[in-house]
Amino acid sequence: MNISKMDSSVLTGDVRNDKLSNSLNLVPIRSEKMDDIMPDDSIPDEQAPGAVSDDIAKMEHDLEEKMEHLRAEVFTHVHHENVRCYRNTQAVIIENTDKIVKQAEKNQRSLKGLMTAVLVFLILNLAATAALAVFMLR
Question: At CA 107, angle to CA 102 and CA 113, rounded to 5?
Answer without folding.
Answer: 130
